[in-house]
Every structure is written in structure tokens, then in C-alpha cells.
Amino acid sequence: MACLSANALLTLVPSCKSVKFISGKLNSDGLIIDADDFKVAKAGSSSLRSYVIVRNDALKYPICVFRFSETDYSALWMQCTHQGTELQAAGDYLHCPAHGSEFSNKGHVLNGPADRNLKSFPVTIMNNELFIDLRRQ
After folding, report:
1. Per-residue pLDDT tens over the stretch 50-86
2. CB contact set of 85 (below 8 Å; sequence gap of 6+)
3. Fold adopted by 19-133
4. What percent of the chain has pLDDT over 70?
5. Which end of the chain, N or C, is less packed with Cβ atoms under 10 Å?
6. CA-to-CA distance for 137 and 119, rounded, in angstroms?
């Protein structure tokens, strides 16, 4: 049992390192984040994260921003549409710890009991900044 627990812990630790939490700049229309927040600096090279999580004290739930390319992003409200539990990022999907619902990186329901897609927000790119428009969904 101890070996299994240690092995499970070791698989979780690397995935926790890859999650980046940022606060963003909140204004009356939405959130602004830096596109460089997706960069991962490694000795002599850099790579890109597939997502970042925006946690801002003014927001009830975080927003997960997935990066597909330089010009294609999705911003998803991390509240389960089943019973409102805060979602957890798990690679390229979001998972509800309460009842197991899963959502794709575009916010579509993959597994229930949730039967509605996640709230998503338009993302525009200007001068290496991403604007997440909280007025529209």
C-alpha cells in the first residue's frame, strides 16, 4: 500500500508543477493577461503551457485559459454546470471533483452528470496581451 501511495504521489507532483496561476488585470470589461504567461523557461530552451488558470479575488470562480496556437485560445469559467462545484484542470480537460463531470478544453461536456457546456468567454489578442471579455459569453 505504501508503494502504491508513493507512486501515486510521484505522478501528481510533476503535473502540479505545470499549473500556472495568475491574477490578470481586471477592468470593467474583462481580464487582461500576458501571452508570455504561457511560456515555460527551461535551461537553454523554452516551451509553452497548454493552459493557465486566472484567479482574481474579484471573481467567484477562476477562469482556465487554454492555448491552441498563437491566435487560438479558449477561456472557460471553472464552475461545474451540474451543481456549481469549482472545477480542476487535468491536462487538456476540466474535471469536477464532486460528481465526476468532465469538460473538454473548449468547454463541451465529455462525461456527466453535467448536461450543459461550460460558460466561455471570447478572447482577443492585442500586442502580446490576451483580453478575456467577461461581458459576453
Report:
1. 999 999 999 999 999 999 999 999 999 999 999 989 9
2. 79, 96, 97, 98, 99
3. Rieske Iron-sulfur Protein (2.102.10)
4. 86
5. N
6. 6
d(CA 60, CA 47): 31
Q: Name the residue with higher pLDDT: 42 or 75.
A: 75
pLDDT at 44: 73
- Asked if 131 contacts 31 with a C-beta cutoff of 8 angstroms, the reply is yes
Do 19 and 89 touch, CB atoms closer than 8 A? Answer: yes
- Confirm if 103 and 94 have CB atoms less than 8 A apart: yes
Question: How confident is the model over 119-125, as a mean pLDDT?
Answer: 96
Put simply, whether the predicted model's pTM sits higher than 0.90 gets the answer no
**How buried is residue 104: exposed, middle or buried, by Cβ count under 10 Å (0-12/13-18/19+)?**
middle
Q: Report d(CA 39, CA 24) in Å as an integer.
A: 15
If you count DSSP H runs as helices and E runs as strands, how many of each does the chain have, helices first?
A: 1, 15
Cell of 47: 516551451
**pLDDT greater than 90 at residue 19:** no
Q: Which amino acid is at 53?
A: I
